[in-house]
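Good morning,

Attaching, inline, the backbone tokens for the sequence recovery test we're adding to the shared suite. The designed sequence is right after.
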């Protein structure tokens, strides 16, 4: 599936992938992030960019070793807080390493960053380090896809079909409906903390959703992208586009990232993860 060249969404992705150094797609499960990442990579290839991908769902799989999961188990489908923090810290180092290894402007980094629950929130959080000028500057753009209520329902229906009958190994990593609702409940709690008013508690609200993500990305250049119609999908959105290269942690990088968590108490880790939205 490819977006129609005359569509508004195509124009947004074309401009983002033509003029940016890094493009990150932020949002909860069920927002269409994977589709936008795939389409952005395809469009970037067409305009001559060399595409590199960094995705939460892919990077965190390297941490799913028997040894790590024995210490930090996944409970009810939720990645342990220590792993979420470790992946984020690895990612910040990995993006800086990529930036230095590929200085030519033809190279483009496209990322999938859920942010919620400390899932690569480290890339949105200001730090006094060598990477901050890139992340905080005009060369980096965060896209926030915000589907309408109707589109959101359609995405969730399609997600259920993918999980029930996966056509790609990564389809199984998609969050099931009960976790999608859990993420939404958490986002509503964050809205309360940030003083963002709720209109219909417990149900998806595009305006609330956009407001929370704008607040999370207030230290980054960010653009809300309304998704008002269902986009036709052929095959799977998890297929890596031709020519794109994935950034994944090596075994040594996983060990190093986890080692920094092993020195901390579980309570300390849980407290940090619970405050993921404070930037």
């Amino acid at each position: 599936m490819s977006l129609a060249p005359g569509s508004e969404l195509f124009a947004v992705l074309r401009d983002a992938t033509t003029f940016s150094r890094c493009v990150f797609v932020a949002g909860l499960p069920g927002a269409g992030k994977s589709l936008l990442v795939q389409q952005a990579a395809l469009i970037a290839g067409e305009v001559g960019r060399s595409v590199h991908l960094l995705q939460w769902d892919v990077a965190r799989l390297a941490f799913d070793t028997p040894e790590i999961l024995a210490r930090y188990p996944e409970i009810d489908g939720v990645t342990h807080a220590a792993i979420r923090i470790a992946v984020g810290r690895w990612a910040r180092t990995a993006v800086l390493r990529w930036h230095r290894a590929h200085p030519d402007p033809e190279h483009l980094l496209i990322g999938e960053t859920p942010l919620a629950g400390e899932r690569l929130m480290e890339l949105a959080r200001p730090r006094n380090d060598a990477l901050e000028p890139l992340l905080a500057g005009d060369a980096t753009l965060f896209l926030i896809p915000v589907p309408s209520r109707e589109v959101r329902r359609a995405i969730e229906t399609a997600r259920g079909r993918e999980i029930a009958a996966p056509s790609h190994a990564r389809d199984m990593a998609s969050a099931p409906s009960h976790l999608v609702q859990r993420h939404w409940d958490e986002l509503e709690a964050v809205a309360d903390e940030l003083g963002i008013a709720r209109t219909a508690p417990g149900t998806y609200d595009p305006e609330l959703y956009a407001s929370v993500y704008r607040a999370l990305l207030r230290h980054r250049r960010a653009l809300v992208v309304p998704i008002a119609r269902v986009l036709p999908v052929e095959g799977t959105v998890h297929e890596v586009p031709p020519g794109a290269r994935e950034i994944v942690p090596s075994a040594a990088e996983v060990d190093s990232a986890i080692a920094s968590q092993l020195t901390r108490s579980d309570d300390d880790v849980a407290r940090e993860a619970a405050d993921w939205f404070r930037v």
